[in-house]
Amino acid sequence: MSQENILEIENLVMHFGGIKALNDVTFDIKRGSVSALIGPNGAGKTTVFNCLTGFYKATGGGIMLNAGDKPTSVIKVLGEKFKGSDLVSPAAFFERVKYKMFGGSHLVNRAGLARTFQNIRLFKEMSVVENLLVAQHMIVNRSMLAGILNTESYKKTEEEALQRAFYWLEVVHLTEFANRLAGELSYGQQRRLEIARAMCTNPEIICLDEPAAGLNPSETEALASMIRVLRDEHNTTVLLIEHDMGMVMNISDYIVVLDHGEVIAKGGPEDIKSNPKVIAAYLGAEEGEDVTL
Amino acid sequence: MSQETGINIGSSIKDTIIAGLLALIVFGPVVGVLLDGYEFIARIDDVVWIVAIVMAGRFAISVFVQTESGKKFVYRQLTKEDGVSVTAPDYKSKMRYIIPIVIVIGLIAPFIASKYVLTVVILGLIYVLLGLGLNIVVGLAGLLDLGFVGFYAIGAYGLALGYEYLGLGFWSMLPLAAIMAGVAGAVLGFPVLRMHGDYLAIVTLGFGEIIRLVLTNWTEFTHGPNGVSAPLPTLFGLEFKRRSSDGTPFHEFFGLSYDSAFKYIFIYLVLFLVVLAVLYVKHRLTRMPIGRAWEALREDEIACRSLGLNHVLVKLSAFTLGASTGGIAGVFFATYQGFVNPSSFTFFESALILAIVVLGGMGSTLGVVIAAFVLTVAPEMLREFADYRVLMFGILMVVMMIWKPRGLVRVTRKGFATRKGVMK
């Protein structure tokens, strides 16, 4: 296990029936970096995201999440198929049974990876604060008896949860909307609230799926500075999918370019800008043709 | 909305006269003419009274809607609001005045009301319990359950069969039935809660039918359609029968003459306290992490999973708690009837309970209480129309869905005072 890389993706393969969405995708994400996953439409960016966050069960390959106290294999916690070796190793067998019954993408989040969605998925009929309280479900006092009797310790953890919620509302500039329904907020506000909600789960790495989609230039600028705040003040690693190249080049330390389910380039923004394969993928050049930006 | 202020008396009078004429046309022949053999008697005074009441009412309404508060009222009714609103952080519900009054009335009522009224109210309260149980499953967690009557049956048969085979009485079966129904909910829920919407509805529908068919056909154990008798509750071992097989009955102990209403008064009081307790627990649950998780799950399951909530366990907890509330209701039903048989647990009951939840407003506690009473007490009052009960029920549902699709009572969410944010 390498402490330097928070996320290690090895030979990730994802097939939907006969369609090969991902072919042998390999890249690492450094702890404390802002990394971007870019590529033309249909390149498989969101598929990679869904595999990372446990919403798709990858067909093959490995995803290691080095967050929390111990490394987590994302593929394993989703529940793998039984193998022949399970017959001789009961411990491995029972672990597999456990993950088959109780495993799922929620364990990926508990391991320290949070995500947002391309099409915003807020709890629209709940208030903004409640959205953030739900995200703290694993932190607060969930004892049913304590809650019904409204004990002091229960009140204390609830108050702490509220303070944490208001802290994140301040970060995303939504304090004045705390008691509005999440569905009533404007599109940009909803995007920011979704980031705040993901951050309320205390993740070590946050995956943002097109956070700047539908935002105007000034909102995009504000988002970029917010992402820097997440990295610099909260030691959160950020991985994002984005089509706004200005923003990607501006904030990313590391860029992975996907095309047709394969990694065609990885490196710093400068390398990517001048990489002929990337330019060809975006502009659709003929084989062997030389293209420059 | 018209912008002019002030009250236009002229148009009100016009409305009044039109309403009066319509009332005359409708009630004139119906009320005003009484057939007496081949003759008829004209009853002008009755017609005049009715028309006068209609005209006065129309005039009052017409003036009211032109006042400021009336305009607001009309505006509120006309605008189709989403139904959910967040209250201000310092908002105090008027319910805190109403609830103590209702509790006092509820505790005094059995000593004043007649036995018949009492039995109707007991039935109403049983449906309140059922509605609250299903409201957790359907209203809060958003899981469509068409077999809720199965848990109700488990509670009711639990008391009857527990008494017959194990000699367990009302008080030991009350918690046991809640646990049994809860376990049944969990056992049913665990494999099926991975399904969504329609599929879940079909599976639960099947479950309700399985329970009913088992109760009907397993004659050696449940006596099939003949049913089983259920015991009455006891007050510290005192029975409410005319003659007790062991010990003194209640009325002899206190030196009262026997009255069959005693047992209903007692059942009512116990039930009333249980309903209050369940209402309180439900109120707390909606403000607790588990209640928030249920509602979040109803809103968006995928987002819940991305936030680390185990969706299966969250659903299972809703299913189990809802089922155990249904089980408690079943125990009360059995002891109130003194007898259970499978015909009380048909799909129609499930539909009725679901109607209570939908009519009351998904997730609204007050709405469920009101809807439960409307749907159980109204049929009792309209005994003359017993044949048309289901028809009226259907019409009511259609009208409600058009007029107030989100239910009788608007759901409000608690607001939180703004505070200084602190990390950790």
UniProtKB/TrEMBL annotation, chain A:
**GO cellular component entries:** plasma membrane
Q: Where is the ABC transporter domain?
A: 7-285
Q: Could you confirm whether the keyword ATP-binding appears in this record?
A: yes
Q: Per the UniProt record, which EC number(s) apply here?
A: 3.6.3.25
Keyword terms: Amino-acid transport, ATP-binding, Hydrolase, Nucleotide-binding, Transport
Cite a single Pfam family from the UniProt record.
BCA_ABC_TP_C
Q: Which GO terms describe its molecular function?
A: ATP binding; ATP hydrolysis activity; L-isoleucine transmembrane transporter activity; L-phenylalanine transmembrane transporter activity; L-valine transmembrane transporter activity
Per its UniProt record, what InterPro entries does this chain match?
AAA+_ATPase, ABC_AA/LPS_Transport, ABC_transporter-like_ATP-bd, ABC_transporter-like_CS, BCA_ABC_TP_C, P-loop_NTPase
SMART domains to which the protein is assigned, alphabetical: AAA
Q: Name one GO biological process term.
A: D-alanine transmembrane transport
Family membership, please give it: Belongs to the ABC transporter superfamily.
PANTHER family of this UniProt entry? CONSERVED COMPONENT OF ABC TRANSPORTER FOR NATURAL AMINO ACIDS-RELATED, HIGH-AFFINITY BRANCHED-CHAIN AMINO ACID TRANSPORT ATP-BINDING PROTEIN LIVG
Question: What is this protein called in UniProt?
Answer: Sulfate/thiosulfate import ATP-binding protein CysA
Q: What is the lineage of its organism?
A: Bacteria, Pseudomonadati, Pseudomonadota, Gammaproteobacteria, Oceanospirillales
